[in-house]
Specification:
Helices cover 36% and strands 18% of the residues. By secondary structure, it is an alpha/beta fold.
């Protein structure tokens, strides 16, 4: 059996940053990803990094995050994350990130939706790619092994402590176990429930649900305002900090001060809008050459001459596995944490984003939460011993039996994974979109329940490179998390952030609280801790 101090699930920005932090703290580390190590599938970041590099301090950055997050943010997380943003940006530069700069040689800072001051730095339309490349290089320098095409089947727990995991090597068909002193869940959210694109299937959230860990704030899903109409092409928000303007149906610029989700909702309510990039200065166009190329190749649009039609779509989920101030998973209450289990990035709900995601905070949150979780996991590992060997062996045997049973049933009649995912996406777009009500949510719950009871077809009986089986497993996970999200939306009888109820249009005056939703759909509340 393999044994590592820290095992990280997800090759995302958060996952790699956690691996670097844990390694630097002296832990042995490995990273497991469901996609190839250099794939972007674990990330949905479409913006640069927000920091107060051009401000006296981070107070206004923190205030903007709280304001856009509709007062559901955790104060300690917001303060620590915004306060560390300049340091994170400097670290990325030190590692080789070539930031766009102004005439004075300082990082160019764009003022994006929800920001009271210019605050977002990046590398134009390639920020995610460049940051991922930098972090990959740092992992390689530290000899951190990263394995792709690994599907996590189970977290092994004993007496409230995470002892390791069971996983499937998709390429070989081998089911194997890994023992760990600390486990960090850092893969994608579950926005594929809306998009149907299989990129973010909520695997870690589903694993947590199965272990009796209730998920937090699943009712909040961020929309991306700069999505080209009738496509899935999402343009970086950084365009709006470089001269781009969103034009409403009346021909006037639309307000961006309330944040990306508010802008997205205004566009949808107006039946669409247009993005005008014709005023972007020539000095900035080179930083967005990829945008121009994609628009021309995929949409036949010359962005230097033509307005770009917009219709927002779901981009990333805000809710997920609840964590405390150091990234440790919380089970039911702040005083009840799961020893040896941490979460970061889109898999986690740290309290940074509250009820709505602000510009530049997505990438910042991934990096900051990854570093926090990596350090905390390494500290946990340093004071712990490997345990739970017998429990891991039992779980491995059970996984083999289940795997064999599923393969032996191949050929039986059923509905394809694609049909299930498409039906789910239609349901979520219709009833869990920018406006919700009790009737629609009841329909959504019934529809998802029916999908969960539907037999999903499996034609491939080979254990080797059985991507059909993997998709089936991921689809089942996605359905369980989507069902919990509908329960959370039903229980929150108010409108807050990007959760808008047409039958409860006002925001409660009582102090807000996080929602916690269990596997069976039971929803409880968790008060803000700060």
């Amino acid at each position: 059996m393999q044994a590592w101090d820290v095992v990280i699930v997800g090759g995302s920005v958060a996952g790699m940053r956690a691996a670097i932090a844990a390694s630097d703290a002296g832990a042995t580390v490995t990273v497991l990803s469901s996609s190839q190590p250099s794939s972007f599938n674990d990330d949905a970041i479409i913006c640069g990094l927000a920091s107060s590099a051009g401000e006296t301090n981070s107070a206004e950055h923190a205030a903007d995050t709280h304001r856009v997050g509709a007062d559901l943010c955790e104060g300690d997380i917001v303060t620590s994350t915004t306060g560390s943003a300049v340091g994170h940006l400097a670290q990325l530069e030190k590692w080789g990130l070539n930031l766009r700069r102004d005439r004075n040689g300082s990082p160019h800072l764009g003022q994006l939706p929800g920001q009271s001051n210019p605050r977002t730095a990046g590398t134009g339309d390639s920020t995610l790619r460049e940051v991922r490349s930098i972090l990959e290089e740092q992992c390689i320098k530290r000899n951190i092994p990263r394995r792709g095409d690994i599907e996590i089947l189970d977290i092994v727990m004993k007496n409230g402590t995470a002892n390791g995991l069971i996983a499937l090597d998709v390429q070989s068909g081998e089911i194997f176990s890994i023992q760990s002193k600390a486990l960090i869940l850092a893969d994608a959210g579950f926005q594929s429930a809306w998009t149907g694109d299989s990129r973010a299937m909520g695997t870690s959230s589903a694993l947590a649900l199965r272990e009796g860990i209730s998920l937090a704030n699943l009712e909040f899903t961020s929309m991306h305002p700069l999505t080209v109409a009738d496509t899935s092409l999402r343009l970086p928000l950084d365009l709006l900090g470089s001269g781009g303007v969103v034009i409403g149906a009346d021909g006037q610029p639309m307000s961006i001060e309330d944040g990306p989700d508010a802008l997205a909702r205004a566009i949808i309510d107006a039946g669409g809008a247009s993005l005008d990039l014709t005023s972007i200065p020539r000095t900035a166009t080179t930083w967005f050459a990829g945008v121009a190329e994609n628009l021309h190749a995929r949409c036949g649009i010359d962005s230097s001459q033509t307005l770009i039609p917009l219709m927002p779509m779901a981009n990333v989920t805000i809710g997920g596995i609840p964590t405390d101030a150091i990234g440790q998973v919380v089970k039911g209450g702040w005083d009840s944490t799961v020893k040896g289990l941490f979460a970061a990035g889109d898999a986690a709900c740290s309290g940074l984003h509250g009820a709505s995601l602000n510009s530049g905070d997505h990438l910042l949150g991934a990096i900051a939460s990854g570093e926090l979780a990596g350090n905390a996991a390494a500290n946990q590992a340093a004071s712990s011993k490997f345990s739970g060997s017998s429990q891991i062996s039992i779980a491995l045997t059970e996984a083999h039996h289940l795997h064999d049973s599923m393969l032996s049933s191949a050929g039986a009649e059923g509905v394809s994974e694609g049909t299930i995912q498409s039906t789910l996406a239609t349901t979520m777009q219709t009833h869990m979109g920018t406006s919700r009500n009790a009737g629609g949510l009841t329909q959504a719950a019934a529809s998802i329940s029916q999908l969960q009871e539907t037999t999903i077809s499996l034609s491939d009986s080979s254990p080797v490179m059985n991507t059909e089986l993997v998709t089936l497993l991921r689809t089942q996970s996605l359905l369980s998390v989507a069902s919990a999200a509908v329960s959370a939306a039903t229980a929150r009888e108010e409108s807050r952030g990007n959760h808008v109820r047409s039958d409860f249009p006002t925001t409660d005056t009582e102090p807000p609280s996080h929602s916690l939703t269990s596997m069976d759909g039971t929803v409880t509340s968790l008060p803000l801790r700060s």
